[in-house]
Amino acid sequence: MGLALMVVIWLITLVSTYFFVAKTWWLPVGAAEAAGFIDGQFALTFVLMGIVFLAAQLGLGYIVWKYRERASAPPADYSHGNTTLELVWTALTAFLFIGLNLMGSSVWASQRFDPPAADSVKVEVTGMQFAWYFRYPGPDGKYGATSVKLMDPSAGGEAAVGLNTSDPAAKDDVVTGTMYLPVNREVDLSLRAVDVIHSFFVPSLRFKQDAVPGLNIHMHLKPTVIGEYEIACAELCGLGHYKMHGVVHVVSQEDFDKWLAAREAEKQ
Amino acid sequence: MVAMENPHAHAPQGFIRKYIFSVDHKVIGIQYFFLALTAVFVGMFLSLLMRIHLLWPSVNLPIFGVIQPETYLTLLTMHGTIMVFFVLTTAPQGGFGNYFLPIQIGAPDMAFPVLNMLSFWTTFVAFVVIIAAFFVQGGAPLHGWTGYPPLSAVQSAGPGEGLGADLWITSIAIFCVASLMGALNFITTTLDLRAKGMTMMRMPLTVWSWFITAILGLLAFGVLLSAGILLLMDRNLGTSFYVPLVVVSGQVMGHKGGSPLLWQHLFWFFGHPEVYIAILPGMGVASQVLSTFSRKPIFGYRAMVYAMLSIGFFGFMVWGHHMFMSGMSPYSAFAFSLLTMCIGVPSAIKTFNWLGTMWKGRIRFQTPMLYAIGFVSLFVSGGLSGPFLAQPVLDIQLHDTYFVVGHFHLIMGVAAIFGMFAATYYWFPKMFGRMMNETWGRIHFFLTLAGTYAIFMPMHYLGMAGGTRRYSDYREVKYLATLIPLHQFMTYAAIITIAAQFIFVINLFWSMFKGPKASDNPWEATTLEWTTTTPPPHDNFGGVTPVVHNGPYEYGVPGAAKDYVMQTDPATVSTH
Question: Residue B336 contacts by C-beta under 8 Å, 6 or more apart in sequence?
């Protein structure tokens, strides 16, 4: 029985580890500035936890086989523990866990506490059951006023986010159902939700943030690779949660300007 | 003190007083156990329907028909709620704790037997109420077991958010009241009713785990109860605790100024300690069983007690790690993250000590021991994904993906259930007077161990690849569609693992009537429940009050007559 248990535990451990190490499934290729650090921190955590995982599981398997009861085995060791050992592994674990934590703090801070760059692109993301809308403030750089009373989700576009078209700042606001971002420029995002909580998750851009009714949450990110990246809502928001997706088009500055100009032209 | 008639001396006569409205902690423990067994089969069946829907979204099932996307969300909501409250909180504490805590400390019953009966029957009412949610107009709610408002607070936010959601909250509120009564009883019993010589540092680690769990329950369920009442008020009385000005389906709702994050703070202030409420009794059972079947004292008894106490203490300071992406102040993420990493330390100490307990032992592989070893393996696997999720920067990628689902299922779901299996196989002889079948126990163990790893390990791969949770269909989003083969594998693994659980149920009921008679101490264990008859008499020790002389895990004592020394044995001077 000891042998069978060892074999099963070892097999489970090695098969699980294989798929991690072979990266059969892994983080999608990163396309934003934060990806470098996040992926590095993930890999480091992965290696450290992987070592502990292998040591503990293989050790567990070995111990149950080695110390199985049999006629030739010596009597069990009468011991109530070892204080020095306890202190050593407490200190080691504390060092490992707390160290990992401190390493990750700077990137977290840079995306949240530092103000966005002066030349950043402003985009407002609004979530509602079950669609995302994106608003660009236009040449004046100012978002026009919105009002809950004007919101009409079934109409889509400006009406869905409740844009107050009588506000001068709203005249040049562009509201779209697809998101375009210029590559290598910082994006100053405002996240809002109309009805329930949604979460704006773009795996390739290493970005996730809940959009909460009543809050206007500011975050920034910088896409670094031209391409199309899928958005998936990551907070249960109702029966159509699984359908609440979209695409972020990261394009060159030139293409971005062209796209935005075309949207402005449509509006006039 | 005036001599009083011992209320525990005479067993009540009559079927109803004896088996239904009984005040005997042993009967109540068995009632909790069977309530949880019923609940776990309901919860497991819901998960089976979910897994089937994910693979074959348009299959027409007998009775249930085609499962709609909203029905899928109902299934996951009810699966989570039933499993967390009526299984993970009910069986380890209400079931085994009720039955064995008084016996293990040498008491004739709980401190408040009538309150004990009341807490069981209140839990039962809560269960009836939650099951009723399936059958009302609109069906059960779809807001997930976490019930985040505004989704859970606005009736028009989705199907099932009408009466079904009200019943869901009401059930949880009733459950909270029952748990508070239970917690008071456990704490008072542990502090006041210990037999002579049963010092705190001689209590079995199971008693410590039930005691600490009860303290957590007392502090956590009160908060959830208040939070639930506020949610009911938002839903039905027009208050705005959790709901700001929102527009749902084009209609402006009458709320303003509420904070959706307030619910999350209150919910997780309960929700995180709840994780430990589920797992601590499993830790206690694993310690008890590993020591007994390794024929060795527990490695680092005091360290184990301090580790559990610090897990309980830190458990109340880490709730914010569920909310890194919620929009709460990003500064607080530092504190929550650091404290979460700290809680990993006592958890690691416990693992080291379990390995140390088996080291140089003489391990016997009866089924309880297999489950205790499985518990350690799952605790390691489920625990090590914690330090990923505890780092806010990694949570950006992993939050609300299957990585989280895999993490909490391994550690608070399956590991806790392995603790319950270990407890069932270990204490069954004492509870029912007969032995369970070993061969079928072992087959059940290996199938369940391999099966649960096959279900939950792939969830980590899925989560790393960005696989979002709570989606009823993965074909809508292109990158999620590429991950469907993993879902297929998990569904097949789930079907096999669920089928294997019938081995357990058949073994349980067959052994109850047909198993070989159990002796008073079949595992050659040392704690007080093994000093009394099998099954124990109504007052637990047949009119004798046990006197304790030794620590709980005196195995392999050099010079002793046998390889174990009972806690009541006066012959040996203990090191404790």
Answer: B317, B318, B319, B320, B321, B323, B324
The span from the CA of B456 to the CA of B477, in Å, is 22
Residue A77 located in a structural domain: no
Helices (H) and strands (E) in chain B, counts: 18, 2
ipTM of the complex: 0.95
Asked if pLDDT for residue B467 goes beyond 90, the answer is yes
pLDDT in tens, A149-169: 888 888 888 888 999 989 999
Write the CATH number for A161. 2.60.40.420
Q: Is residue A76 part of a domain?
A: no
How do residues B479-525 score in pLDDT, each as one tens digit?
999 999 999 999 999 999 999 999 999 999 999 999 999 999 999 99
Name, in order, each residue with C-beta under 8 angstroms of A171's C-beta and a sequence gap of 6 or more.
Answer: A138, A144, A165
- Looking at the fold, whether A213 and A234 belong to one and the same domain comes out as yes
Output the pLDDT for position B1.
Answer: 36
Sheet with A217-221: list strands edge to edge.
Answer: A174-176, A131-136, A121-128, A187-193, A217-221
Q: In this complex, is the C-beta atom of B443 within 8 Å of any C-beta atom belonging to chain A? A: no
Of B349, B396, B556, which is closest to A208 when you measure between CB atoms?
A: B396
Chain A closest-CA separation from residue B76 CA (Å): 11
The percentage of chain B sitting over the pLDDT mark of 70, rounded to a whole number, equals 97
Q: How far does the CA of residue B438 sit from the closest CA of chain A (Å)? A: 12
Tell me which chain B residue has its CA closest to the CA of residue A48: B384
**Strand A198-202 with A207-211, pairing:** antiparallel
Furthest-apart CA pair in chain A: how many Å? Answer: 92
Q: Cβ A86–B480 below 8 Å, yes or no?
A: no
User: Would you state the structure tokens that stand for residue B28, as one six-digit string?
Assistant: 């109540």
pTM: 0.95
Nearest-CB residue to A151 (from B73, B247, B468): B247
Domain-located, residue A64: yes
Q: Do B151 and A238 touch (CB under 8 A)?
A: yes
The verdict on A93 and A136 lying in the same domain is no
Q: 């058949």: which residue's tokens?
A: B506
A245 and A159 within one domain? yes
Residues of chain A with pLDDT under 50: none
Q: Is B557 on the interface with A (CB under 8 A)?
A: yes
Which class does domain B280-511 fall in? mainly alpha
Q: Say how many domains are in chain A.
A: 2
- Find chain A residues with C-beta within 8 A of B344's C-beta: 93, 97
Residues A101 and A121 in one domain: no
Mean pLDDT of all residues in chain B? Answer: 94
Give A123's strand partners: A189
Q: Within the 321-360 window of chain B, which residues sit less than 8 Å (CB to CB) from chain A?
A: 325-327, 330-331, 333-334, 337-338, 341-342, 344-345, 348-349, 351-353, 355-356, 358-360
- CA B168, B171, B175: angle at the middle one, nearest 5? 140
Q: Structure tokens of B120?
A: 């069981």
A118 touches chain B (CB under 8 A): no
| CATH 1.20.210.10 domain range(s) in chain B | 22-258, 280-511
What's the mean pLDDT in B48-73?
92
| Structural domain span for residue A37 | 2-68+82-111
Q: What is the mean pLDDT of residues B98-122?
A: 97
Tell me: the pLDDT tens digits for B155-174?
999 999 999 999 999 999 99
Which residues 364-383 of chain B have a CB within 8 Å of chain A?
364-365, 370, 373, 376-377, 380-381
- pLDDT, position B10: 66
Q: Do A125 and A63 share a structural domain? A: no
Calculate how close chain B gets to A197, using CA atoms only, in Å. Answer: 7
Chain A interface mutation, best of B464, B483, B562, B575, highest count of A Cβ atoms under 10 Å = B464
How does pLDDT run across B548-565, given as a tens digit for each residue? 999 999 999 998 888 999
Same domain, yes or no: A137 and A256: yes
Same domain, A194 and A221: yes
Q: Does B493 lie at the interface with A, CB-CB under 8 angstroms?
A: no
Note whether B468 contacts A52, CB cutoff 8 Å.
Answer: no
Give how far the C-alpha of residue B345 lies from the chain's centroid of Cα atoms, to the nearest Å: 21
Residue A75 in domain: no
Q: What is the pLDDT of residue B250?
A: 85
* Residue B129 confidence (pLDDT) above 50: yes
CATH number belonging to the domain at B22-258, selected among 1.20.210.10, 3.40.50.970, 3.10.105.10, 3.30.1330.10 = 1.20.210.10
- Whether residue A183 is found in the same domain as residue A90: no
